[in-house]
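Sanity check

After download, print the first record. It should look like this:
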Amino acid sequence: MALRDKLQTALKDAMRAKAVDRLSALRLINAAIKDREIATRVDGETTPVNDDDILSILGKMVKQRQESAHAYEEGGRLELAEKELSEILVIGEFLPRQLDDSEVTAAIADAIAACLATSIRDMGKVMAELKGKYTGQMDFSAVGPRVKNMLS
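Expected structure tokens:
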């Protein structure tokens, strides 16, 4: 089942169960997907968003909510931080399992070998390889410095 279909099914289930917070988070996800479709519209033709695009959108949403929750906690707004964290849980249901530290290191080593990377100049190729295979499974902002260290 495609990721978009899973989201629609979850949305309908949340409506039936009258789960207000879950429904709100799912509607935010759908809105973000619609925004991406509108942004990629060419000559009035909407190009459908694929699963990789949806995973990218979900990853960005999680990151935004983590930053917001942190800011709310620092500001003493715990109820808002809890809302952000609950949205992260809902969004996380649709993301693939995150790779642990050793798996990330192995994936980086495999990508370096696949690209025949030898220097820091090849970092873009390695990152593209990783993004192609592991979208949604690792935090690429944290992976970048690790790739750089392994290529240095």
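If your output differs, re-run the checksum step. Summary of this record's structure: The two ends are 42 Å apart (CA to CA).
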